[in-house]
């Protein structure tokens, strides 16, 4: 079956795409195919009626069929309120933000809730799109139902008199949108272009980079995929597009930066005008929500909203001691952002309790008592399908303990080749191999999306993202009996001891640096003195040479004087005789 075949009107195939290599699909050229999916263009807007008019005029000249296109403008508290201009797509409406809420995230949530399209195309209110812009986006959504498509923007400083909406509609309709404005040479999304080019049009981009191109100015995705990811994070006032892009990666989405989905951005963005202020504002919120931003998670002793890895330990049939060993060993990881999920029949722990020491559910009760108030440990009845939004999950059999750096090194190994699954062989008996599993959330989600009923999920993960077997000893997994004496100490005391040792080494290093600085200063002074002595030597040598030359000249003058007197005396004697 061709990966580009439409199954039925409004239904889309689910082809197998390895990693982010959307090149396995054959995208049709604009104008050479029959669109069938409906799309809702959602535009959050506040003020700037003049720019919104140009945006709607360009959308009124799109090649995408008008009966499949609706435009929803969400007025985010404009004063005066925005109005619907004379030139706009046929199915265009302006609605207010929900419950008086403000901000782009709330506006987008309001717009998508009101949208009827099978695809949501988010667009800013200052974008003048080229004639085939929407069609270029939509061709990908007809090929697969888990695509996230971003457009390509050219920036203009809006110098001189801007075109009228009628002029924009005519130029876009005649495929002359490129002549509407002068490109701003000082501004642009060059960093996106470099990122895309470095990774072969983003086809071999690693999972940890995919969300970086998800900028909100023009991006489209299936409405069902947006709901699956959880919609917009309305608690964010900036950076909501980046955060959504991250969660979309964990659904197994494929990101397509389409160079043919062109558009003009009218003026510059806030991030371009005030980059340092935007980073300062966004960093705390992004650090809490996007574990891939490792450089933002360097603070010691912190806990984060979204963990880097979720360690799942099944407590159903295991002893309290075995489960505790696995949990505590995982929490002692060198990674600062680990969460543990304990699975088991927790609902069976009712308020009625038998004799405490003979309780048949004693081990479960002890585990609940041990970790009920640890914010890093949660309880679940069963293993969830994925650990989203955490990007990694380690399924660790109870009674096995990862080393302090095992989690960090496993993730580093997975990231090196962007692998979807690492299996650590722990033990083997007649029933098979007992293994710990490091799963990449996005790879599991993708495999679940495309796997057939008769396929093993691990085989699909291996096919699309890769899978590797590892040995327990090399990756420092130990049975609880061997691990407990090795690491079961007071971690706070150990941390304090190592911190004190580090501080001591730091002080020694500081003293050594001061000594080196003093020696350098002394050496500099000696070199200066030596240089001065060398200059004095040269000067005195030059003076001595000058005195010598003067003495030679004087002697020569004296000799000439003596010879002259002798010659005169000789002449007088000769003349007298």
From TrEMBL:
InterPro entries: Glyco_trans_2-like, Glycosyltransf_2, Nucleotide-diphossugar_trans. Residues 40-162 form the Glycosyltransferase 2-like domain. It comes from the Bacteria. The keyword Coiled coil applies. Keywords: Coiled coil. Residues 502-536 form a coiled coil. This is Glycosyltransferase 2-like domain-containing protein. The lineage of its organism: Bacteria, Bacillati, Actinomycetota, Actinomycetes, Streptosporangiales.
């Amino acid at each position: 079956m061709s990966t580009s075949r439409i199954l039925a009107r409004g239904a889309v195939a689910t082809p197998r795409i390895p990693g982010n290599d959307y090149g396995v699909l054959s995208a049709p050229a604009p104008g050479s195919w029959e669109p069938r999916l409906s799309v809702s263009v959602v535009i959050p807007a506040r003020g700037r009626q003049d720019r919104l008019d140009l945006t709607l005029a360009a959308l009124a000249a799109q090649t995408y069929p008008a009966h499949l296109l609706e435009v929803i403008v969400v007025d985010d508290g404009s004063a005066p309120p925005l109005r619907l201009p004379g030139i706009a797509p046929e199915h265009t409406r302006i609605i207010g933000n929900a419950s008086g809420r403000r901000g782009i995230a709330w506006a987008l949530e309001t717009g998508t809730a009101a949208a009827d399209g099978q695809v949501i195309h988010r667009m800013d209110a200052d974008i003048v799109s080229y004639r085939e812009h929407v069609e270029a986006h939509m061709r990908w959504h007809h090929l697969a139902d888990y695509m996230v498509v971003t457009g390509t923007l050219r920036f203009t400083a809006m110098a001189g008199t801007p075109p009228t909406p009628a002029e924009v509609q005519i130029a876009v309709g005649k495929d002359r949108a490129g002549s509407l404005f002068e490109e701003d040479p000082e501004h642009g999304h060059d960093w996106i272009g470099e990122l895309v080019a470095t990774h072969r049009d983003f086809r071999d981009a690693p999972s940890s980079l995919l969300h970086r191109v998800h900028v909100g100015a023009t991006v489209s995705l299936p409405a069902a995929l947006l709901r699956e990811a959880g919609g917009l994070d309305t608690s964010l006032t900036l950076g909501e597009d980046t955060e959504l892009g991250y969660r979309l990666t964990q659904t197994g989405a494929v990101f397509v930066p389409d160079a043919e989905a062109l558009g003009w951005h009218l003026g510059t963005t806030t991030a371009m005008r005030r980059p340092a202020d935007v980073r300062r504002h966004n960093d705390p919120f992004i650090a809490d929500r996007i574990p891939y931003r490792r450089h933002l998670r360097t603070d010691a002793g912190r806990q984060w909203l979204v963990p880097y890895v979720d360690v799942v330990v099944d407590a159903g049939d295991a002893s309290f001691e075995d489960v505790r060993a696995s949990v505590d060993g995982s929490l002692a990881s060198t990674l600062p952002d680990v969460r543990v999920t304990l699975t088991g029949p927790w609902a069976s722990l009712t308020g009625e309790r038998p004799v405490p020491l003979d309780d048949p559910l004693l081990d479960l009760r002890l585990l609940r008592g041990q970790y009920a108030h640890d914010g890093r440990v949660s309880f679940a009845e069963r293993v969830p399908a994925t650990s989203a939004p955490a990007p990694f999950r380690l399924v660790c059999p109870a009674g096995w303990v990862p080393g302090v750096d095992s989690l960090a090194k496993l993730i580093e190994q997975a990231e090196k080749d962007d692998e979807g699954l690492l299996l650590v062989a722990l033990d083997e008996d007649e029933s098979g191999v007992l293994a710990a599993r490091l799963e990449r959330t996005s790879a599991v989600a993708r495999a679940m999306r495309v796997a057939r009923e008769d396929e093993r999920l691990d085989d699909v993960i291996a096919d699309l993202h890769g899978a590797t077997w590892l040995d327990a000893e090399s990756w420092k997994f130990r049975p609880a009996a061997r691990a407990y004496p090795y690491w079961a100490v007071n971690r706070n005391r150990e941390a304090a001891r190592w911190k004190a040792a580090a501080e001591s080494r730091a002080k020694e290093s500081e003293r050594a640096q001061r000594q080196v600085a003093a020696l350098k200063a002394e050496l500099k002074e000696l070199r200066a003195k030596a240089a001065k002595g060398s200059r004095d030597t040269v000067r005195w040598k030059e003076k001595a040479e000058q005195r010598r030359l003067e003495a030679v000249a004087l002697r020569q003058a004296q000799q000439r004087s003596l010879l002259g007197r002798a010659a005169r005396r000789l002449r007088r004697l000769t003349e007298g005789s």
